[in-house]
Amino acid sequence: MKCPFCGSADTQVVDTRASLEANTIRRRRKCVRCEKRFTTYERVDLKMPRLVKKDGSRTDFDRDKLTGSMRLALRKRPVATDAVEAAVDRVIERLRSLGEREVPTSRVGDFVIRELAKLDKIAYIRFASVYRSFETPDDFREAVQEVKSARKRRR
């Protein structure tokens, strides 16, 4: 593993932790040359289903794009990076568990919207406004009512 700061290939593993729910291994590393620390993650590389867009075109699944869209909805919200990564991992696990070769992007959006609803209600509203193509203030009002009624049901 090369150091991202100085490019040296001489690094040491300082700490290793396995995440059972995410099937990842987190390693804290230290560069021998510049002595800076950094984190790496190891994940099993399984074949993801292809995504079918609304227009019928197909594209490869992109974890970075999924993470980016969730982070955009969570921008300036008090949600930890680890919580976002765990939510992304859960979405990916749901996609894999479907066992399908192709999945509509609307299904991915459903998984994402559920995870955002658990993480942060404002992020949920932000994502829903784009995902469901809100056009009027009433659309926002309905989404807020959904959040409020879901909160009351849990109590």
What this model shows, in words?
The protein is of the alpha+beta class. The chain has two domains: 1-45; 47-154. The chain contains five helices and six strands, in the order βββββααβααα. The strands form two sheets. The chain has a three-stranded antiparallel sheet, with no helix packed on it. The protein has a three-stranded mixed sheet with strand order 5-4-6. Strand 2 (24-31) and strand 3 (37-43) form a beta hairpin. Helix 2 (81-98) packs antiparallel against helix 3 (105-119). The longest helix is centred in the middle third of the chain and has 18 residues, at 81-98. The radius of gyration is 19 Å and the shape is globular.
Describe the sheet with the most strands.
3 strands, antiparallel
The tally of domains stands at 2
Q: Taking Cα atoms only, what radius of gyration do you get, to the nearest Å?
A: 19 Å
- Beta-strand percentage range: 15-25%
Mean pLDDT over all positions: 88
Number of DSSP E strands = 6
Show unreliable segments.
Answer: none
Give the overall shape, derived from the CA principal axes: globular
Order of strands across the main sheet? 1-2-3
**Structural class, please?**
alpha+beta
Note the run of SSEs as H and E.
Answer: EEEEEHHEHHH
As a percent range, the share of helical residues equals 40-55%
How many helices in DSSP terms?
A: 5
Q: What distance separates the N and C termini?
A: 49 Å
